[in-house]
Write a structure and sequence with these properties.
Radius of gyration: 21 Å
Structural class: alpha+beta
CATH class of the largest domain: Alpha Beta
CATH superfamily of the largest domain: ATP-grasp fold, B domain
Distance between the termini: 49 Å
CATH architecture of the largest domain: 2-Layer Sandwich
Bound molecules: adenosine-5'-triphosphate, magnesium ion
Number of domains: 3
Helix content: 25-40%
Number of helices: 12
Shape: globular
Strand content: 25-35%
Order of helices and strands: EHEEEHEHHHEHEEHEEEEEHEEHHEEEHH
């Protein structure tokens, strides 16, 4: 059995690492040049994309920003999972917003802007604290601009006037003062069975995910049900197969969808050590038509991204429940280099382990760690 992944980064690599024990081999394609890559060793494999598309049993993606001509070719093989519609929806914020509206799913108030002059109207309708997102090719906070005050609008307009907004419209959102960010990662197979991981709580810094805690603390059954109902609506309307992640903003007891990711997700990496079956294995199972694995939580877990650095000791492995996963990439500012998974029996213990971890790593690269550790210690002592 074999799977081809479009994209050859860490998500393809972690899929491959989970697939091998199932007797499934994984090859990846670098979508920039269509070279075939072994996602674990990163070596180039002497094969053509055309031949591989014919040979493999299933084709999936590790990210949504796939050139559309390639996506069409792969779609026509009949092996692509999730569907082309799901991938195109995740890749385009305008499509995503129209799906959310069509399904009547609560999301952040927005306007679509195709001429810079419309920004002024957006300020009038949405207020002068805005977050402006390119509708395509953004990730980790790239392709986003923030408006903090109306007086900054002329400068921002000048900057945005350089873009081709007819080609790539902007989705302008009201900057929300939410209570926290949560995500639901779940998997659906071709029979329509769904297994949900618990909601994870996500901490972002400068638009980029730094820490996920799963299960998220203080989650009522009602909130979980709300998230699962939204997931079901989206997954069923897209006839989705594989892992799908839904990012939420929580305001009081309401969830607003921020965005969806039609793939395995950074906020699901905790499941590699904190759940019975991790998201990567479950994605592989779903796209290969195997029974889904249990998503039962085995530890209270924090996933901590290692961003922009790689020069520190590995002595933190002495902390009980500490796991490290390097992606084998050269460091660059804001680049995700790897992650820690810290596993514990409860939030108190998790807070202690995070505090211990913060002693080993440079504070400038882990700006959320200490405060989050203290917060978990507090939650744990209630
Ligand atoms: P990622 O690839 O990490 O998911 P992204 O580049 O796709 O990020 P978003 O998820 O839309 O972009 O935004 C990144 C982060 O910016 C969010 O997780 C949130 O912290 C913040 N953010 C986005 N939209 C809003 C909003 N409308 N109000 C307040 N904060 C927001
Ligand atoms: Mg996001």
């Amino acid at each position: 059995m074999s799977i081809l992944v479009l994209g050859s980064g860490q998500l393809a690599r972690m899929m491959a690492l989970s697939a091998y024990p199932l007797g499934i081999s994984v090859q990846a394609v670098d979508v920039a040049d269509n070279k075939i890559i072994d996602p674990i060793t990163k070596q180039v494999i002497n094969n053509t994309l055309e031949k591989l598309i014919e040979e493999v049993d299933a084709i999936t993606v590790e990210f949504e920003h796939i050139p559309e001509d390639l996506l069409e070719i792969v779609h026509s093989s009949g092996k692509l999972k999730p569907s082309i519609e799901a991938i195109l929806t995740g890749a385009d914020r305008v499509r995503e917003k129209s799906l959310l509206e069509k399904l009547d799913i609560a999301n952040c108030p927005f306007s679509i802007v195709t001429e810079v002059e419309q920004l002024e109207v957006a300020v009038e309708t949405l207020g002068d604290k805005l977050i402006i997102k390119a509708s395509r090719d953004g990730y980790d906070g790239y392709g986003q601009w923030r408006l903090q005050h109306k007086s900054d609008l002329p400068k921002l307009t000048e900057q945005l006037a350089k873009l081709d907004l007819h080609q790539v419209p902007l989705v302008v959102e009201k900057m929300l003062d939410f209570d926290r960010e949560l995500s639901l990662v779940a998997v659906r197979n071709a029979n329509g069975d769904i297994s949900y991981y618990p909601l994870a709580e996500n901490l972002h810094y400068q638009g980029q995910l730094h820490v996920s805690v799963a299960p998220a603390p203080n989650v009522s059954q009602k909130l979980t049900l709300q998230a699962q109902t939204i997931f079901n609506k989206l997954a069923e309307s897209l006839n989705y197969v594989g892992v799908l992640a839904v990012e939420f903003f929580q305001l009081g007891d309401q969830l607003l969808v921020n965005e969806i990711a039609p793939r395995v997700h950074n906020s699901g990496h905790w499941s590699m050590h904190g759940a019975d079956t991790c998201q990567f294995e479950n994605h592989v199972r779903a796209v290969r038509g195997l029974p889904l694995g249990s998503t039962k939580v085995t530890s209270t877990t924090a996933m901590i991204n290692i961003i922009g650095c790689n020069s520190f000791t590995k002595d933190m492995l002495s902390i009980a429940g500490c796991h490290i996963h390097w992606y084998g990439k050269t460091p660059r500012e804001k680049r995700k280099m790897g992650h820690f998974n810290l596993c514990a029996d409860n939030y108190q213990q998790l807070g202690k382990s995070m505090l211990a971890l913060s002693e080993y790593v440079p504070v400038e690269n882990f700006p959320m760690l200490k405060d989050e550790a203290k917060r978990l210690l507090k939650i744990g002592s209630i």
